[in-house]
Amino acid sequence: MKKRTLSFWEIWNMSFGFLGIQFGFALQGGFMSRIFQTLGADKDAIPLLWIAAPLTGLLVQPIIGYLSDRTWSTRWGRRRPYFLIGAVLSSFALILVPHSPTLWIAAGFLWILDASINVSMEPFRALVADKLPDSQRSYGFVVQTLIIGIGTWVASNLPWMVSKLGVSDAAPMGVVPMSVKVAFGIGAVVFLLSILYTVFTTTEYPPEDMEAFEKEKAQKNRFVSDILNNISNMPSTMKKLGLIQFFSWFAFFTMWSLANPALTEHVFHTPAPIESAYDISIPEQAAAFDAENTAFQKASNLVGSSMGVYGLSSMAFALVLAFYTSKKRINRKYVHMFSLILGGIGFLTMYYVPSPSFLKYSFILVGIAWGSILSMPYAMLSSSVDPNKMGVIMGIFNMFIVIPQIIAAIGGINFISNLLGEEAINAMLVAGLSLIIAGLCNLFITDKNAISYQPELEQ
After folding, report:
1. Is residue 312 within 8 Å of 153, Cβ to Cβ?
2. Are 204 and 85 contacting, i.e. CB atoms less than 8 angstroms apart?
3. Rounded to 10 degrees, what is the CA torsion of 124, 22, 8, 333?
4. Residue 73 in 3-state DSSP?
5. FRET partner for 285 with CA separation of 20 to 30 A, picked from 44, 209, 214, 296?
6. Cα 230 to Cα 399: distance, rounded to the nearest angstrom
7. Which domains does the chain have, with CATH numbers?
8. Residue 8 burial (CB < 10 Å; 0-12/13-18/19+)?
């Protein structure tokens, strides 16, 4: 099927739901460790508490990709039903997460939240490949990244914003502050509304051969064999991209899980107070705990706000790429390589920032890497796989995202960072080195079509 070239606003509409998805991911990535610490988690235990997220992605995304490839509704299309289901579940989870009374309940809600977000996310990746001709793939993923950048910046600043509006950062021992609860509630509303916008403003192409599609769908009990067959026969470009993804996502999982303890301690000098060190039945100790906890919560707001800068810089980076790729081809390989290296340098500089105000410059560099991670690998992949299997391929490709996160969660981060010392900030050094390695791995990509698809530009 020859796909028509879409306008900017058509691509914007089909990608707008990612604003909500990124609200969910940014709130999860920026503040879940803060919630864990507030509920009494030790720094070294935090990565393991995060294991729900990558495990969920490993299980959910290939299944959802497979099912969406085999779904068609004349009213709802192929991918949109999954957007909507995921949005409803994610919105409920976002509301409930900060109200967790105990650590294990918070970890359970993280599991539910990440599963729900994953139901929505991968079909969005497949939708870009479904709707756009090859000549617009880079452009489409870059526009998607632009929207993700907006969502990351706004959501990462939400607790700070609502705090500035007068919502309290103070809370009793073991209770998440109201500023975080309000921020997650806002995120839930934005998530649902943005997905609904895409569902009702975007149409989808039907299967090219409906008879063959129905015959394929009617075949039962092939899920496991189909998944295994696609894994064993994945293109070599996909394997090479998988290596890049491994080191890239190891780095970002390290940031999401440990940036808050690392930066509140190393940059703001206000680590989370240890509950066992205080006897709150003694008024003086209760007051001391409240003072330290409030300082930690306010520093966490600022860490989240600083992290939001990486969303802003990824948005600016995506905007530049969007203008360029709308008319000309790019060398995806070298764009991705240099972007990842710059992000790695950004992580390394966090060890040396002279004051909290300089932290935003580190995250500007991290944002360039993030903008590239969200667009270039998918553009390269979508130009080298069977378009009829785009959903399941995108789901399988997600394995290269979640496996490094699982390795990091079960001890990989703690082991490597402890080789450098016991300080929490060493985790950011590990993230930086991992991202630089990911950048250099781009040198293995040799498929010319993946590196730089030659668009048939309109005259």
Report:
1. yes
2. no
3. -80
4. strand
5. 44
6. 13
7. 8-203+227-451 (1.20.1250.20)
8. exposed
Residue 437 and residue 345 in contact, taking contact as beta carbons nearer than 8 Å: no
Judge contact between 246 and 400, C-beta under 8 A.
yes
Closest alpha carbon to 155 in 130, 189, 118: 189
Q: Where are the alpha helices (DSSP H) in 16-169?
A: 17-38, 46-49, 52-69, 80-96, 103-131, 137-164
Residue tagged 């309940």 (tokens): 105
Other residues' Cβ atoms within 10 Å of the Cβ of residue 291: 12
Which pTM does this prediction carry? 0.75
Distance CA 274, CA 341 (A): 36
Among residues 263, 27, 264, the alpha carbon closest in space to that of 154 is found at: 27
Q: List strand residue ranges (DSSP E) for 250-353, in order.
A: none
Q: Which residues pair with 73 in a beta bridge?
A: 77
Q: How far apart are CA 30 and CA 111, in angstroms?
A: 16
* End-to-end alpha carbon distance in the chain: 22
CA separation (Å) from 161 to 48, 273, 311? Answer: 30, 24, 16
Instruction: Record the tokens describing residue 388, joined without a space.
Output: 């009829």
Residues 137, 416: Cα–Cα separation, whole Å: 37
For 215, the token pair is 């015959």
Residues whose CB is less than 8 angstroms from the CB of residue 384 and which lie 6 or more positions away in sequence, other chains included: 235, 237, 238, 447, 449, 450
Per-residue pLDDT of the chain (459 residues; tens, 9 = 90+): 567 788 888 888 888 888 888 899 889 888 898 899 889 888 888 888 888 778 877 777 777 777 777 787 777 877 888 888 888 999 999 999 999 999 889 988 888 888 888 788 777 777 777 788 777 776 777 787 788 888 888 998 899 999 989 998 888 888 899 999 999 999 999 999 999 998 888 888 777 656 666 666 666 556 667 667 777 777 788 888 989 999 999 999 999 999 999 999 999 999 888 877 777 778 888 888 888 989 999 999 999 889 889 888 988 887 787 677 666 777 888 889 999 999 999 999 999 987 888 999 999 999 999 988 877 887 777 766 666 666 667 767 777 888 898 999 998 999 999 999 889 999 999 999 999 999 999 999 887 766 765 444 333
Residue 410 vs residues 149, 198, 200, 405, 432: alpha-carbon distances, Å:
29, 37, 41, 9, 20
